[in-house]
Records
---
Amino acid sequence: MREALARCATLTVVVGLVFLAVLVARREATPSRPLAVRDGPATAGATESNPADPLTVSPEQSARGAVLFASLDCRSCHSLGDEGNPGLPLDDVGQRRDREQILAWITGTGVAAAELSPAARRRKATYQTVAQEDLKALAAFLSLQRTPPP
Ligand code: HEC
């Protein structure tokens, strides 16, 4: 009886150790996320399931995107906050679309191509010549816009 108990205890310890080892190994195998960069309430509402993942947008990229949004005259058709054309607000676009989709909508390609009017598509096609890094910054900036339009 004693021997059986001792064997049982040993087995429990061994199984426990193996379990712990597996846990540690799995944790080490999971790559850690880039450091979270949050810039105020714009990122509120970010969820794990949203592929826009604003946690990977750096403040520099976001700032660059904001400047581009103004200099590329996106506000002639779109508004952000209380500035620009209120017909097509982008205040909550980050909640509805991920960065890849936003990129397609900026340039009128991919999923956006079929849905835009020919005139809008022509105008958006002019953005295809913008440097890729700038387009990415613009999309990153827009992915942080997560407040319902005023
Ligand atoms: C000539 C007008 C026009 C200009 C200029 C314009 N857009 Fe658009 N954009 C549109 C139209 C039209 C749509 C489609 C709106 C819709 O279907 O809800 C759209 C859609 C979008 C969308 C998707 C919006 C959504 O609600 O899903 C994004 C993002 C976007 N544009 C970004 C930009 C950016 C960034 C710029 C400047 C680089 C820009 N647009 C310039 C007309 C324009």
---
Amino acid sequence: MKKSIPLFVITLAVALFFNGKKYDELVSSRLSSSIGVCLEGQSCGQATAMNVVTAAGSRSAESIYTTGCAACHDGGIAGAPMMGNKSQWEARQAKGYEMLVNNAYNGINGMPAKGLCVDCTKEEIDLAVQYMLDSI
Ligand code: HEC
């Protein structure tokens, strides 16, 4: 009987940690971030609608980031430097700000040109890069 108590506690702890709800939340949060992967012109929900409404130069840094960059940079997808992660960004800042904007605009490795903001101007990409650097 005594031996079964720690086992029970461990089982309970595991059940609390990995219960179904938590797993569901994890899955749904991953799924919701994929909404940002929709490209403009496709009918894939709110992200696209926001792009259309705010198109052509009137977008804020935050909205460009949210619709065009967050899908990868929020969670560090494919090695993307994460929003708010000082050490990941500092290593890249060593290249110089200009270079970072150029690479975001033209693409580099897993970073597609302009991210998911297919109609972004270079100035808008600049705003989004600045927005990410402001977060660290
Ligand atoms: C599909 C995923 C994805 C999206 C969307 C995305 N990025 Fe990236 N980004 C990456 C990855 C992966 C890297 C790391 C590339 C590498 O250096 O290997 C990266 C790197 C970067 C870098 C660093 C470049 C360098 O020279 O080190 C900047 C700046 C950047 N992204 C800006 C942006 C901006 C601005 C947006 C939105 C307009 C954006 N990214 C959208 C995946 C993405």
